[in-house]
Amino acid sequence: MTNIELPYFGQVDFNQLNEYYSTETEYIGLILRLDLNFKNKSITKEEAVNIKKFLDRISVFDIQNKTEITKDFNNEGEAKDYINFYFDELDDEELSGIFDYQNQNKPKEEQLLSKLRLIRIGLYPDGKYNTEYYGVFDYSIEIDGEPCNQLLVVKTNNIGGLDHITWES
What we know:
Layout: E1 3-6, E2 10-13, E3 20-27, E4 30-37, H1 45-56, H2 58-74, H3 78-89, H4 92-96, H5 108-113, E5 117-123, E6 135-140, E7 142-143, E8 146-147, E9 151-156, E10 162-168
Parallel strand pairs: 4-5
Antiparallel strand pairs: 1-2, 3-4, 5-6, 6-9, 7-8, 9-10
Helix pairs in contact: 2-3
């Protein structure tokens, strides 16, 4: 048998792959989009099992990613630039719609950083697009109930280890 039951995606025949699979699920009360991207028409059973294991660990990877984002923010990396973008582009009233702008107990930048939400995960298990990363986690901040088109993106290897963080729009 060449089928495997993948979390969120259901049965997938790993000997007759489509180039692209997508689905949505609820995650921490929000919609999370997931996609699988393949270059090849087939993968080994071991690779299929690794995809399943990766998908089973989404909540663990989300926690790890947020820790890495915080480190990146504290080291004045992409996460810091990403957060500063909102302070440059939004006025006080708009920022108040995202977090408690009047709260003086925690720096405003940290309050905004805490509003990052995972909105998409893309997997590239066989190197589609000649990528060196395996998982792509898109984080955004909601404005008026909708994710902003500015994304803080965490790219990982096949076991969820950080490759790099970037800002995309």
